[in-house]
Structures are given as C-alpha cells and as structure tokens.
Amino acid sequence: MKILQQCIYFPPEVGGLESHVYYLCRELVRLGHDVTMVTSLSMAGSASDEVVDGVKVVRRWFPSRNPAGWIAHTLATIPTYLPLARHADVLHGQTFASALPGVIAKRLYGKPLVVTLHTSHFLKMAKQARWKPVLRRIIASADWLLAASEEIRDVALGLYPHPRAEALTNGVDTGIFQPVAPSLPRQPGRYRLIVPRRLFEKNGVEYLVRAMPQIARELDAEAILVGDGPERPRLEALVDELGVRERVRFLGARPNTELPALFASSDIAVIPSLMEATSVAGLEALSCEKPVAASRVGGLPQIVDETVGTLFQPADPADLAAHVVALLRRPDLPETGRRARARVVENWSLTRLARRHEEIYRTLLSERR
Asked: What pLDDT shows up at residue 97?
C-alpha cells in the first residue's frame, strides 16, 4: 500500500506524539508498505526532504507552536500534499490539526481517510464553542476515527457519533525499550525516581517537586527529571525554595536512545500529568521493567494499575508522595517490573499497533473497491 501520513511534528522533535508516529511509520515500512510523512520544518537544520528508516519525510514551512501556527502550516502544506494524495492508497491525518489536507484530498480523489486524535490539546479545544464545529466536521470526514485513549474517543463521540471510532493505545518499541545496563551511578541505599516529562504545566512536574520533601522524610530518595521546557526556571526556583536541590536533578532533554539506560538507573518512573492521552513515556518505562506511579487522569489508568505500579490523584503532592513511598516499599518491586514488561509486550508492541493499522487500511480499501 501507498500510505500518506501527515503530522505537525516528527523527529528529531521529541515527545510522545512524535515517537508514536515515527515508530508506526517505520513499522509499516518494515511490513512492506510505501510510507510518506508530510510534516513541519519545526526545528532548525532539519532537511526539507529526506528518507528516515525507509519513511519518505517531506517537511514544509512552520511559523509557530500554537493553534494559529498549526493552521498556517497545515494550509501551507496543501500544494505539496495533494499531488502525493492523488497517488496514495490511504490517507492518514495524525492529530486534528493535520487532517484538513486529507479531508480535501478525500473529496477530490475519493481516497479513504483515517484520522487519529492525540494529546490533551484536543481535549482542551473540544470544550471551546468556537472549535466544536471545526472538530465535528473533521471527525465526520474520517472513514475511520482512532483515538489515543478512551477519554479522547468518548469526547470525540460527544461531538459527533462516528460509527467507526476506536481507542487504540500507542505502541512502544520493545526491542529498544528493554532492561539494559544503567548509565548513571547510584548513591548506595538511595532510591531514585525518574520523571520522563517535558517541563510544561500540563505534565504536572511541579507536584512531583512539591512531593519530594514528604518522600524524603519517609525514604532516602532522589528524582531525576528528563525533559526540558518553559517551566524549568520556575521549577528550579521551587526546588531551591523547598530545600530539595540535593534530591532533584534536571537532566534536560535526552534522545530516546538514552532513555532505556536512564530507566535502568532508577527504581520507578513517575508520570504526574494533569492531562494525558496515553503516555508513551509511561509505556517505555513499563517496557524497561520499571513500575510506574501515575496520575489517575486520561488514558493513564488504561496502562497502569496496582499490578504494574500505582495511581494517585492529580495535582495532589501528598497523595503522590504516599503512593510513591508505598510503591518503593513493595517487597515484590522487581516482580512488578517484570509483570509490567510482559503486559507491554502482550498488548502494546509496535508490531501489534502496525498490524491493527494495516487491518484498518485494508478494510477501507476493500470497501472502496
């Protein structure tokens, strides 16, 4: 099949959406398909046209990281997208903001269109009256609607009762994300938490920082924050204000290739998000045999429960601290990690994810014929 994908962001951008789309496209290529990705020149130095692991990547102008910038970029890609769509078998818009060229191409050429709804941005915009008609039309235009979590699917169905709406959890590369040798030295007797979160307000890292004094009163523990973002100066100041500078380390953004060894250098992962679809970072930690403590929001309860970690109330440092301490004190913590990986391999491997997409594409193509 010739599959034309579009997504605003793509590696070398770092994030859950970017990882999901990259791994899906790469796996579809491995299954023998011709995959082209139309995306943005969001990072200086990126090539306009290149092939990445067999995926043809076409990058075009990108003005800014906000809804106005997304819309401008998507409109600007239409002249590039339509000639590619004419020769494609299936069109797939990753995120609502990337769907418009596919909607237009579907009407012009009669090609089947799949739309996947990702991230908390959709949940926020679905509450706004001015965006509801736009999102409703995009959802209605899809021949198959996918959502990164049950919450996103249900919100979408509240806008339009799509007959083919499916919650499909993101996948993880279990070959890369597996137990490996640690990369960071450990202080003997000290527990370590890893927080693989970009430093944006919605990711709730503030509440992990606020929980650290309570955690430290119960256990000798430290946290390493892997990710960067606009919240970093405020969080650095909060660390000093709370007197936990010796217990909180900012590692900044790190490439995915470094994460398995960073997970191996820690005891558990913490995902303190205030909003979340399905956390790719959470799945990656589980795949590396690390139990996960996560907020009880969005799609996180779909991947984390007491058999592989624990759930706490969002924006509640005291509850976060209590659950993290209880998880670290579990006598079966290593076994919990092994169960976590087994669950990911069974349910959320990349092969399983790509095969399901392949089934959907083939179903739509057979119906068109």
From this structure: 87
